[in-house]
Amino acid sequence: MLRINYVPISRRNSFGRFDQDFQVGMPLSWKDKLRSETKRFLDISEWANPIAATLTCKKARHDGWSIEYANPIKCSKNLRHVLNILKKKTNQRRPLPVVAVLEQAGDGRYHYHLAIDAPKRCCPDWFCSVLEEAWRKSFWGHRETCCKKADRGWIHYITKLRGKKDFGDAIDWQNVNLSIDS
């Protein structure tokens, strides 16, 4: 059996930043293998209406007496709440297929990169507006959001190694749902 290994090489992506791509020949590091297998597992190519979203969390909340700071657990609970609102507003019986990746920016602010399979009957623009509104109204939701139709490179982008302290913990497995309704 022939086994092909890949080595990361740097290239500029569409945003002008260096991104890793793979080239045949040399062995992969364990991080690259983990990323490669994760991308394969989180494949969204069968989704009918994939949506790409970036949702930013508030750094802290003030209640008059004390300050409560965001952390991954609070962010995850907030995302679950927003996904439940989306499920209700789209009249779904089952949870929507979602891939959720949590990153922390250099200033300490958490943000989610999501891939969501919107129901076939939903207009992507309407779905994005409902998602953004639900996020902004949520307890930890910040006003900075971006939502649009996803392309094939979205999973590649959200599984990048940059911006993640621990790649394995960056994926919010409690909010990931890969089931597809037919």
Summarize the SSE layout with pairings.
Elements: E1 6-12, E2 18-24, H1 30-41, E3 50-57, E4 60-62, E5 67-69, H2 72-89, E6 98-104, E7 110-117, H3 124-137, E8 141-149, H4 154-158, H5 167-170
Antiparallel strand pairs: 1-2, 3-7, 3-8, 4-5, 6-7
Helix pairs in contact: 2-3
Task: Provide key terms for this protein.
182 residues, alpha+beta, Alpha-Beta Plaits, 2 domains, four-stranded antiparallel β-sheet
Query: How do the strands line up in the largest sheet?
Result: 6-7-3-8
Classify the beta-strand content into a percent band: 25-35%
- Taking Cα atoms only, what radius of gyration do you get, to the nearest Å? 17 Å
What structural category arises from helix and sheet content?
alpha+beta
- Spans of 5+ residues with little confidence (pLDDT < 50)? 1-16, 18-26
The backbone outline, from C-alpha atoms, is: globular
Describe this structure as you would to a colleague.
It is a single chain. The protein has 182 residues and is of the alpha+beta class. The protein has two domains: 1-41, no CATH class; 47-170, Alpha-Beta Plaits (2-Layer Sandwich). It contains five helices and eight strands; from the N terminus they run E-E-H-E-E-E-H-E-E-H-E-H-H. The chain has helices at 30-41, 72-89, 124-137, 154-158, 167-170, and strands at 6-12, 18-24, 50-57, 60-62, 67-69, 98-104, 110-117, 141-149. The strands form three sheets. Strands 6-7-3-8 form a four-stranded antiparallel β-sheet. A two-stranded antiparallel ribbon has the order 1-2. A hairpin with a 5-residue loop joins strand 6 (98-104) and strand 7 (110-117). Helix 2 (72-89) packs across helix 3. The longest helix has 18 residues, at 72-89. The chain is globular, with a radius of gyration of 17 Å. The termini are far apart. 23% of the residues are buried.
